[in-house]
Design a protein that fits this description.
4-stranded antiparallel beta sheet
Length: 71
């Protein structure tokens, strides 16, 4: 999970519409793949499927609004 962005300056003065969730391949790679699109600003969790046991993954969360995303 992650913290919801506050209205105003943290959003570039445009309302956050949702979030994109990216994960790497679990092998320490630097390539991230979009795994989820969250279409509600209030939703701050995501379920990720197809993970392997004993594997460490990295995740990136990107907020998006009418102008695009933060990544």
């Amino acid at each position: 999970n992650w913290n919801q962005l506050a209205d105003g300056i943290n959003e570039g003065f445009s309302t956050v519409l949702g979030y994109y969730v990216y994960k790497n391949n679990g092998a320490g790679g630097t390539t991230f793949t979009l795994t989820n699109t969250i279409t509600s600003k209030a939703t701050t969790t995501a379920s990720i499927i197809s993970l392997s046991a004993y594997t460490t993954y990295l995740f990136k969360i990107s907020a998006y609004n009418i102008h695009g995303s933060s990544i």
